Amino acid sequence: MLNSVKNLKGYKLKCTDGEIGEVDEFYFDDRFWTIRYLVASTGQDSLKKQVLISPYALREITREEKNIYVKLTKKQAEEAPSPDTDKPVTLQFEEDYYHFFGWPVYWNGLFTWGDYPFIQMGREKTKVQPESKKNWNHSLRGTRYVTGYKVHAEDGELGKVEDFIIDDETWAIRYLVISLGEWFADKKVLVSPRWIESVSFDELKVNLSLKMNEVKESPEYTPETMPDRDYEERLHLHYKRQGYWRDDGQAHEG
Known about the structure:
By secondary structure, the chain is of the alpha+beta class. The protein has helices at about 5-10, 75-80, 90-100, 145, 210-215, 230-240, 245; strands spanning about 1-5, 10-15, 20-30, 35-40, 50-55, 60, 65-70, 120, 125, 140, 150-155, 155-165, 175-180, 190, 195-200, 205-210. The chain has two domains: about 1-125, Alpha-Beta Complex (Photosynthetic Reaction Center, Chain H, domain 2), CATH 3.90.50.10; about 145-245, PRC-barrel domain (SH3 type barrels, Roll), CATH 2.30.30.
């Protein structure tokens, strides 16, 4: 099912023996545009510690109660390697993290989640898309920091990144929410990461392989309602692009 990063912030993380904290950030990679960690802070004041939870550990999301259930004890989550909050997440940290839990790493193999081509939540296994051919420097980005990046079409500046729409079964980022600004009555539209030409993390800029008018005339996105399959069909028809649900083996309806 699709959900937004803004909506998921504040969800309680429930371990098998109690609550560990609230979601306040997400780390993703820009090779597959997939969420790699949910980030929460545990403890109080000077004793606060950043806790990272991989989607491998997630069991269930209940939207009514705004809870995310985790297949770990509080001790496991708290004793796992923790990154330095003032520095980027390093490959060495991730290797230590995955070794701690005995999980397969996601950056090796032919699929979004590594050699093992499924990520399991509850009783369902969801197949994910094959390996991207993009050259990729292993690095994670925070959704908090990419929010606000300027967005450029092939022929000019469009607006800025306002939010992310994720598939909370595969944890793929399906869309970036783009605000077109006051000249367009703050119209919001969705753009798939597949339509991104490049991202400049130095210039804080997202470059699209789309024309300005294409984006401006695309179906409007309303934050109060998550996109359904009908909206997604109309969006992809507008851009004359094939939907992700048709070419990566996804069986669920998002």
